[in-house]
Amino acid sequence: MYCAGYYKAMRATRFDLGEMLRHQEVNYVGALNMLDAVLPTLLAQKAGHLSLVASVAGYRGLPNSLAYGPTKAALINLAQTLYLDLQPQGLGVSVVNPGFVETPLTSQNEFTMPALLTPAEAAQEIVAGWEAGRFEIHFPKRFTLWLKLLSHLGDALYFKAVRRATGL
Known about the structure:
By secondary structure, the protein is mainly alpha-helical.
């Protein structure tokens, strides 16, 4: 399970290349390093399971997520591709897309986080998803289902809905 993350809120009006690259290094390149270390063994034994922790912030662009969101979108895409390549080899692959979980990263947020979960609650959701054999494990459903629905809107409706919901 790759569960490492770095987050610092960023908007385009305060673009910082160093912060963008730090997000990429921790959130995405770290997952590639993990894959480099474990894939040969998993392929040789034709058994095992890989799980990448991404985020609902990877579904579509969100305010303050200029650096974070794209790295989580990359993990979602990576997990989908790994599933297509590895499932026929007998390996399991899943992607975990949590909403807000109470961590040092979310403690930076200056807004009320809907459906905030404790780390223990998040862990229970992940284990339940693995036990059910789900590819995508997202939680809490009362929050993530809305984001999944919004992600299917056309651009104009999506942008209007996000601006209305966030006040930006």
